[in-house]
Specification:
five-stranded parallel β-sheet; 11 helices; alpha/beta
């Protein structure tokens, strides 16, 4: 059946009342033509307002180690398989990391995340980074990290330093993952998320859209994030980078971007959704709607 605006509003009302729909209804939402996205938006906005009001959450990242990543993610300019001019440098020293955090505090940003390239940061490097964060005040700024596929002892080190959230995207649906990355398995990413949660850390995990996934695979990713009960969901849209395997990928429409955001809002109704990379480029005139 086709879902109309009133049905979307009814779905939103049921979610707000504590009765989210079954997966069949989510499948119907996923199948809505992108030109009908404006029928989805009032209900999605009602859900957002109910759970989050009019609050705005700001986060920023510091690329603390860049380039020469041995993974073959098709979209990434930092992969050794990409032919790009991305800067290459080792892990920044403590002073540079702390300078980034102080910038975030001065600009009233809520979360500051240290991100590094590579499959994982070494144990010694994790300890160095944790030491830089441990020395910083924690009153006005929350700390996150994205350091690859760490183990349980690494997460304990990060926690002790005051890093409360770990960022590790699934990137895309499991059924699409091998078309995007072959150097590690989807299950490795899932295990990292589970290990971070087991260590008592909050987890920020989402994906990248516009990389050839279908609408059904958007929903598949969303359902996986729901099962993992992640704490926040970053939504990124591809900006093709020359020299990567996806450099000639056609852009997705602004309406499809809105549809993806709306679908995830209905599905992950009580989780913060952070519209991040590619938002201005891909949303164009609709950027102010999100």
């Amino acid at each position: 059946m086709a879902v109309n605006k009133q049905q979307c509003l009814d779905i939103a009302a049921a979610i707000i009342d504590g009765n989210p729909p079954d997966d069949a209804t989510y499948n119907e939402l996923a199948r809505m033509p992108e030109q009908d996205v404006f029928a989805m938006l009032p209900g999605a906005n009602a859900v957002r307002e109910h759970f989050f009001g009019q609050r705005v959450h700001l986060c920023c990242i510091l690329n603390a180690k860049s380039g020469k990543c041995k993974e073959d993610c098709a979209f990434c300019a930092q992969s050794v398989y990409a032919k790009t001019n991305v800067p290459v440098y080792p892990l920044m020293d403590s002073q540079a990391i702390q300078k980034g955090a102080k910038y975030a505090t001065a600009n009233r940003i809520h979360r500051f995340s240290v991100v590094t390239s590579g499959g994982r940061l070494s144990e010694k490097a994790v300890e160095r980074l944790a030491g830089a964060i441990a020395d910083l005040p924690k009153q006005d700024l929350r700390f996150c990290a994205s350091l690859g596929t760490l183990g349980s002892s690494d997460f304990e080190v990060l926690k002790q330093a005051g890093i409360t959230r770990y960022h590790h995207n699934l990137e895309t649906a499991e059924s699409h993952f091998e078309k995007i990355c072959t150097s590690h398995a989807y299950a490795v990413r899932v295990k990292t998320i589970m290990d971070a949660k087991k260590a008592g850390m909050a987890v920020c995990a989402g994906g990248l859209f516009g990389i050839g996934e279908s609408d059904a695979q958007v929903l598949e990713l969303g359902l996986a994030l729901r099962r993992l009960d992640v704490d926040a969901i970053p939504v990124n849209f591809l900006i093709p980078v020359a020299g990567t395997r996806l450099e000639k990928t056609p852009g997705i429409s602004a309406l499809r971007c809105l549809k993806i955001i709306a679908l995830l809002r209905y599905l992950l109704f009580d989780k913060p959704i952070l519209v991040c990379g590619g938002r201005t480029t891909n949303l164009g005139p609709y950027h102010d709607l999100v």
